[in-house]
Amino acid sequence: MADKTFNIVFEIEGGGEAAASAFPGESLLGAARRANVAIDAPCGGNGTCGKCRVRLLSGETGAAEDDRGRIGGGPSRFVSPEEYADGFRMACSVRALSDLRVGVPRGALAYRNNIKVSDLGVFREQRIFADLRREMEALGLGNDPGLEVIRLRLSPPDPGDPTADRERLVRGISAALGVPEAEIGVPLGVLRRLPRALREAGFSVECVVREEAGGKRRILGVYPDPGADTAVETPAAGDGAQPGAARIAGLAIDIGTTTVSMLLIDLETGNMISTGSAGNGQIRYGADVITRIIESVRPGGLDRLRDAVAGECTEPLIRSLCEKAGISPDRIYRAAVAANTTMTHLFLGVPPEHLRLEPYVPAFFEGRTMPGKDLGMSVNPEAEILIAPSIGSYVGGDITAGVFSSMIFRKETPSLFVDLGTNGELVFGSAEFLFSCACSAGPAFEGGDISCGMRATDGAVEACRIDADTMEPDAVIIGSAAGRKPAGLCGSGLIDLIGELFRCGIVNSRGKFVREGRRVKHDEYGVGRYIAAFAEETEAGREVALTETDIDNFIRAKGAIFSAIRTMLAIVEYPPDAIEDVYVAGGIGSGINIGAAIRIGMFPKLPLEKFHYIGNSSMLGAYAMASSRKAAEMVTSIAGGITYLELSSYPGYMDEFVAACFLPHTDASLFQ
Amino acid sequence: MADKTFNIVFEIEGGGEAAASAFPGESLLGAARRANVAIDAPCGGNGTCGKCRVRLLSGETGAAEDDRGRIGGGPSRFVSPEEYADGFRMACSVRALSDLRVGVPRGALAYRNNIKVSDLGVFREQRIFADLRREMEALGLGNDPGLEVIRLRLSPPDPGDPTADRERLVRGISAALGVPEAEIGVPLGVLRRLPRALREAGFSVECVVREEAGGKRRILGVYPDPGADTAVETPAAGDGAQPGAARIAGLAIDIGTTTVSMLLIDLETGNMISTGSAGNGQIRYGADVITRIIESVRPGGLDRLRDAVAGECTEPLIRSLCEKAGISPDRIYRAAVAANTTMTHLFLGVPPEHLRLEPYVPAFFEGRTMPGKDLGMSVNPEAEILIAPSIGSYVGGDITAGVFSSMIFRKETPSLFVDLGTNGELVFGSAEFLFSCACSAGPAFEGGDISCGMRATDGAVEACRIDADTMEPDAVIIGSAAGRKPAGLCGSGLIDLIGELFRCGIVNSRGKFVREGRRVKHDEYGVGRYIAAFAEETEAGREVALTETDIDNFIRAKGAIFSAIRTMLAIVEYPPDAIEDVYVAGGIGSGINIGAAIRIGMFPKLPLEKFHYIGNSSMLGAYAMASSRKAAEMVTSIAGGITYLELSSYPGYMDEFVAACFLPHTDASLFQ
Asked: Who among A349, A358, A364 is closest to B165 (CB)?
């Protein structure tokens, strides 16, 4: 154990530096995390993924020794002897033996240009969103956030009417709404600003009022009435809102293990204002929920993880969305969060550790409501934050919200809902019954565990055809209209590409390359790859390729999904063709090539028209909860009606999984 | 305007140093405030009270120039030329012309040994407290805090029962109380600690549960069950509570302009646990509410004032009381605060500025309830903090709570309630009607504006007889049994002393000394004084005396009370002898010599048995609110029934006041 502390400076490619002191024996990855340098480590720093390659610019390193024991720091399958001599190191495996200067290539960062905010012109799921709104309308769940904007012209105080400010305001609201004064509350935060707000508005105000249980009202915002003709010089009680901007806004938040997505809503109309997404900052502690839970148990880990998702992702996203929309975050009066069980715990700062210890018990299942101030969110302090309920350790609020947006709970005949996130979750049922299960598919569908994998953002190959003769690809790139070149493969692109490689006989049923050509290469270890874009054609000057290792990882992911579907149908004793419709959700691109997905054995062979891609159903469910009190109640009631099936307790599951780890399956007849 | 910043070190007599940089032109008093040195300045730093005398140890001073303009820094009526040469300065009137070292005498500090915590052996108002409890019992308002302690032995999770922790706990509470699970809530703070608390308690827990509106329940605390026989090694979910200590505690808080008092309650029994008091830290910004309001308008002033009362007084008091009682502040689940209107605003951080601007409108009147976390109080974050309602700019929650503890609102014939605080407030009425008014008596009754004035704590002269022949005093000193020597005069001592000086013909009806002797001296300006204790007999080696200036100040205070009583009776057209009983409240000592008070013209001449001293009625009312939900509701309903009379709008009031500024009155027949 080294007993000295060294200083490490991280030099980020493309600009930026960060410094940290390394604890004795600590890996560079550990030091980088403390310096908030988000070096990618999907394997959680176990030395098994090779994503955390950095380059030593000066100083000396040795093998790291941390709480997991000694891990080798020399050349390996991820760092060749030549590269080692050239300074390349795996950040997880080495420690400082002197002060260091370390170069961090852009490729080693977990996310770049992290926050992405879109106006609706480029929102890719508008049609799905419009369908959901129509269905909600039809069910009587239309825009119903329980919030009103009331305009009041109050008489200013005078010696004949020395009523206090709060009582004056409440008197006005009472008269406007016909609600008794005793039923109207003013939170402390509003009260503190009230004397100034009323006077700066010349007592002509626009109030945001929430209806609460039993018809009570709560005044959450007091702004100068922009329509009043009072000559007020400095409307400082205003919040810099642009004319015409939403007066009451809502947020739908989907917290995925890999990606955080958000939607800003005009709560007066139910319309979307803008959307945004960012990589979940927790990814530097590992790609999957297990590595996050392990980190949460370390000293200060829970706070670090909470900050990595809230402080680094949701907070800047809220600010970006509001800035773009020209509204103050104080105008956000209602929000809903949908996330898997672990992410829900971490976002709320609740210890998730028993989720990974037998008997796998979460701290809570229930849907929760709390004021924004309790979470320190950049929204109105009194905003109601709704958290979608979980029903099991691995079936969380993302699924209960997603089932709402799939609407399978309304159908008379049973349908299947499949969410392709970092895990795969399935719900099967109808208005009569609902069963769910989860399978550990891994992050392949979101671009994780894939050497050139990426999220479905600009530069991602989202669809691909291959000419069977020439083996040349014809790829669709997100953002190509704006001149974006290929940068990697997102989930839908992966499915397409593997389907095409298999269809063209370029890979065999075990996922190995069996043809040669200018697009197919093998490295010095004999690992084959298909080059979708040559280095000179790409954004970063680095080829976009799919390797046999990637295909292996993907096959395990799709095999997990397929075997889960088979096992669940067997448990509830339904044949595959009893499935009325299949709703496929997940943020995997513009959609999914169902034909390809069936061809490679990911989904059962059913008529194509039974499949419906419903996009990010978790975020859409969060939208429903944020915009409608009745929809939020319905999500709670759906969650109460879902029965959770534990796949691992069914002996046949492992055999099904092994059989499904082929293209398409050991029993190819299932797909004919 | 000086343009240089100097460093000032304050050397506190008896130990302690504090440093500050003085802004150009800033007074030493201003710099001392920023250094948290509580130099006394009842006049608010206007150079008119002479209390802020400090002594220059090194460096040079000049006249201060601040936002109130230039104020002289040379010799004055408070600093003789000899004293000036000796380094004495008024901190409010001088600024630094070089780096300084400044000695701060103990006498110049607004408070010393600030926090005082008593167990009940020395609590001086136990009889009054016992009477109140008896009356509350009789009214059906006995101990009713809406809190229960439930002991539960839960079955630990196992694979056959993987219910989440929260749901497991709620299931247990539901079974124990017969309340549906959906009606039972768990706050986020409790949820965050729940997984650990349950396991460290071996799932045998003691829960604190609050009953809320509509019979809902909220679980506020989860502790290991001390009675359980589970072998738990580290009961870290416990809170270090001593065996036998209260399991659920409450607080009654009285925030006076001068003094903050507090009472810790065992909410299971309604018994007092201990009491404490401290000087209101805001006193360094001035003795009365007007100077505080002026300070609140300055940049950052509101935060400074809020911190001076909360951070410096209530927080350390809570910690001291809990420490003495051997309980964690987290066990405080309910508290009530009674304070005058300005103090209520400042404690909540609500701007009070319009209280001193026509038409004198507060930000709010209503009684409020909020969780402890919203105020950052060292109590359970979910504790309900109740704020007593105000009914006017100068009739606050101290009075509505006080009227409750006087019980005049239950009587069939009208009685008078008089609160002698920094202001004097009166309420007159019965079960039929209640009228109130306020008069600006000044802080004399609490020892302010009196050269040797002090609060009713150890060393205070609280009663006094004078031998008419020898003029020698026979004084009762608080704490004399414990060997405390005289240190100053508290309110009850003042009334006694002035009554005796007048009775013995030592002062005349204008408050001027008309006899000579070893106890009566005149200074070089001709100002007479009566020496109650010679320097060598006192705690600090400095004589305890009453000057003609003090008597003037006191006469104005008692004149304000008497003229307010007369004016209010005239307004409601009642003769003085219609008063059934008079309840005198205020923290002015062990009681009040009513005979003396009548003799000097403070109270109307009524049979002595009609007068009742009810002590700190504001704190007792806060006790009632904290210990009983029904009592809290009754305070709200009392507040709603009081009619406020604005004395200043009655033309006769000023004449009454002038007539009452004599001993006993210009119309002495009123007291014969």
From this structure: A364
